[in-house]
Amino acid sequence: MTSYEDFAGREILPLWEGPDPVNVPMIRHWAEAMGDRNPIYRDDAAARATGRPGIVAPASMMQAWTMRGYAATVEGPDAGAAAGARELDGLLEKDGYTSVVATDSEFEFHRELVAGDRVSVREVVESISPEKSTALGTGRFVTTVRTYTDQDGEVVAVQRWRLLRFRPKEARAPRPRPAVNRDNAFWFEAAREHRLVIQRCAGCGTLRHPPGPCCPHCGSFDWDAAEASGRGQVYSFVVNHHPRHPAFEYPLIVAVVELDEGTRLVTNLVGVEPGEVEIGMPVVLDWLDADPDLSLPVFRPQSGIAA
Q: Are 226 and 197 in contact (CB under 8 A)?
């Protein structure tokens, strides 16, 4: 049976030539995207004035020249082209290390790339650490060495690349805390008591949400709070799938609910499938007790409207 120690020194990516030669348009796009205004990446005369043969590629582009592109990544490598990588991935996944994060990259550059260069890369495993506990979860650090060569087989760069393959922690993260200030503290205090209140101007009686220090209608700074009935309708909604936050369950329905009193608030819908939600759907108040210090209003379909 293959062990992690057996992979040390093993090739997981045979020599692979990048799909495109080094070229000026890609260099220009990269420099513009990075905000790098160095003229040696943009102007042939300026580059030659420094003793270079012409425009050169930023060193940080080294990996870009050997990236396969989206379509090739989805289709996967040719049969046998990266058998070592597939075998290592299978071993890591079998042990539950299904998540991955890059931890560091160290480059050693031998020369600058110029237009027309053809860059190839070969990757070899340097080491795989024993199992370690990290803040992300339990996993192993996989360190590989990528050697980049040109069309003549000369080394142009060497990269030491380290990934953490880990088994994610299953504990649910705490719900993100709201930004509580002097203007809205009364609202969160009422929510802890399972009371949904709406700020009301003491001058003209206008209801407003979110809370604020001044009435936008009459300019009064005096206010009190009215208790809402807890009934309303879906004014708008979205269904969140990505990016995922570990404190929430997905798919996550985020809605703007218009209360019977006329104000609107951003909330979550519960007790309903995403495909059943409709604009104008009647909803009623429920409560989410995230922790002893935080209760938040959520809404569910009014009885008889949706399961």
A: yes
Structural domain range at position 279: 185-301
* DSSP character at residue 178: P
Exposure string over 125-158, b if 16+ CB within 10 A, otherwise e: bbbbeeeeeeeebebbbbbbbbebbbeeeeebbb
Contact call for residues 280 and 249 (beta carbons, < 8 A): no
Q: Residue 38 corresponds to which tokens in the numbers above?
A: 């160095």
Alpha carbons 287 and 284: distance in angstroms, whole number: 10
CA angle 276, 261, 285 (to 5 degrees): 45
Whether 196 and 290 share a structural domain: yes
pLDDT average per 10 residues of sequence, the chain (307 residues): 86 93 97 95 96 96 90 59 82 92 95 97 95 90 97 98 88 83 96 97 96 95 96 97 87 97 97 95 95 93 62
